[in-house]
Amino acid sequence: MNNSELYTSARLSPLSLTYYARCLANGNYTVKLYFAEIVFRDNRSFYSLGRRIFDVYIQEQLVLKDFDIENAAQGVDKAIVREFKAVVRNKVLLIRFHWAGKGTTAVPQRGTYGPLISAISVEADFSPPGNGKKKILIGVGAAVSVLFLVFMILGILWWKGYIGSKISREKELRGLDLQTGFFTYRQIKAATDNFDAANKIGEGSFGSVYKGILLDGTIIAVKKLSSRSKQGNREFVTEIGMISALQHPNLVKLYGCCIEGNQLFLVYEYMENNSLARALFGSDEHRLTFDWPMRQKICVGIARGMAFMHEESTLKIVHRDIKSTNVLLDRDLNPKISDFGLAKLDEEENTHISTRVAGTIGYMAPEYALWGYLTYKADVYSFGVVALEIVAGMNNMKYRPNENYFCLLDWALVLQQRGNLMELVDPKLVSEFNKEEAVRMIKVALLCTNPSPALRPKMSAVVSMLEGRTVVHENGMDPSIYGNELRLRALKDQYGQILQLPMSPNETDSLIHSSNATWIGSSTSTQDLYSINLDSR
Fold first, then answer.
1. SS (HEC) of 102-157
2. What is the rounded average pLDDT of the residues 174-190?
3. Residue 396: CB partners within 8 Å, gap ≥ 6?
4. Confidence of residue 499 (pLDDT cuts 50, 70, 90)
5. I want to staple 16 with a disulfide (CB 3.0 to 4.6 A). Which of 98, 192, 312, 338 is the partner?
6. Which branch of life, at top level (predicted)?
7. If you write DSSP's letter for every residue of 405-447 in order, what string do you get?
C-alpha cells in the first residue's frame, strides 16, 4: 500500500481507542504510529475551529502527552509518524489512545474531538530462531488482522448502542480523571448487608437506593441502577464525570462507583436528615422544626450551590429539576443539591438549549415547560419556588387557600399586591423571626419567578441579595397578568387534570408520592437518591 493511502481514512473515538496485539514473542519491538488530521480541515470555515488533544500510552506507559496532530505535523492533511520502542514480556502489546478532557468538545460537532489514528505498524527488533520466523510473522499478521476486524465490528456495535460491557465501561471510567474512587461489588454488598430491605431508603426509575456502612465506619448511600434503566454506557460515564467534577459544600458528594457485569452502582455521601421536602412538610413523624436562622442558612446554601453550578464550575450545568425533594440535609442541616440525572451541560456556543421537557410541574419555568426553552434562568425560577416553600413551610403544589388560587406562588403574588407579605411567613415561627430577612427572601423569590427569564437575576446576584449585600429590586408584576397569561393557564389545566386522577389513600397522604405523579416526560424519578420510604431510618 502506498503510504499516502494510509491517511485517506482513520479511526476516531470520543473517549479512547485501545489496541491489543496478542501471541507475540517476548522481546523488543518498534512501534510506529501514523497520524494525519483529516477531520478538522483548515479551510477557515466552522470546521477549522476544532482542536484535538489526546494522550498515547504503550504498555501502560505515557509516551505522548497532550498530543496535537495539527501542531506536530504543522498543518492539517499532513502525515506525521511517531516511532517508539516497546518491550513485550507477556506476549501482549497494548496501545491506547485516550482523550484527557482537553481541546474542543463540541466543535464542529459532538464526538469528533477524541483520539484519531490512521495506521499502526509493529516490527520485532530480533530474529526468531530456526525456521519458525515465517510462521510467527504469518501468525502475528493473522492475529492483528483478526483483532482489527473484531475491534471494527465491536466499535460499530458500541457506537450504535447495541452493546455495552463491563470492560468498556470500566476502561472508560478508569481512563477519565475522576475525583472519585472505585468500589468492588463485595464492598457494596457487605456495606448494605447484602442489600437488606431494612437498609432500603429509596426507589427511583433508575433503581433502588440503600443505606450502607463501609469498614472504616463511613455511612454511604448506594444508588443501584437497575438493568431496566435506559441509562446506557455513555450516559453512565457522562453522569459519573459530571458529578465527580462538581465539588462544592452545597452539592452532594459522589464517593465513587462500582461496575459488576450489568450492575452499576453510584456511592454517595449519606444525608442524615433526608430531604428538605420531608423536613418542611412531611408527616408529623418526620417533620423538623426550623427556626428562622436555619431557614435563612438553608436558602442561602442552596443559592450558593446553584451559583457554583451555573457560574463558577469548570463544567457549567443547568440542573433542570431544582425542588425541595432534591435538596438533602446533612447532620448539621446543611443543604446539598442532589439528583443530576436530568442535568444538561451547557455548550458555550449556545445561549439556550431547546430540549425535551423533563422536570416537575410546579417548579418548572413557563418557557421551559411549554416550549422547551432551557437556560440557567429555568433553574433560577425553580429556586424561587423553593425559597417560597422555605418561608411558608408549605408545598407549592399543595397549598390552595381557596379555589381562586392554584399554588403557593399564586397566593404570594396576591399578597404582594395587597402589601401583606408577612401573611406568607410560616405561622409556626410566630413572631420569632427577622422580619427584614423574611421580606427580603420573599421579594427575591418573586423576582426569581418572574415569567420573563430575562428579568430573573443570576444566582450569584441572588446570593448577594439574600445576604443583604445588594438591594432587592421590586418585582412590580401584576398577578392578574401572571394568572391569565396563556402559558400559566396551560400549567393550571395540566395540574387540574392531575388532581382529578384517582389516588390511593397512601398516595394522597404522602407528599413524595403525589409529587411523583406530577412528572412530565422525565428520565429520572423525583426520588432517585432519597427517599420514597419515609419510614426508613
1. CECCCCCCCCCCCCEECEEEEEECCCCCCCHHHHHHHHHHHHHHHHHHHHHHHHHH
2. 72
3. 362, 363, 385, 388, 389, 407, 408, 409
4. very low
5. 98
6. Eukaryota
7. --SHHHHHHHHHHHT-GGGGS-GGGTT-S-HHHHHHHHHHHHH
Peptide bond into 293 cis (omega under 30): no
> Would you state the pLDDT for residue 164?
52
d(CA 408, CA 362): 9
| Interaxial angle between packed helices 166-175 and 233-245, expressed in degrees from 0 to 180 and rounded to the nearest 10 | 30
Q: Is 464 helix (H, G, I), strand (E, B) or coil?
A: helix
Catalytic residues, by residue number, are: 321
Label residue 163 by pLDDT band (50, 70, 90).
low
Annotation: binding site for ATP: 224
Query: H or E element: which one contains 257?
Result: strand 254-260
Q: CA angle 274-277-283, nearest 5°?
A: 90
Domains in the chain, ordered, with CATH? Answer: 3-163 (2.60.120), 173-269 (3.30.200.20), 276-520 (1.10.510.10)
Report, as an integer, the average pLDDT of 139-152: 74
Residues at the annotated binding site? 224
pLDDT for residue 215 is more than 80: yes
- pLDDT tops 60 at residue 532: no
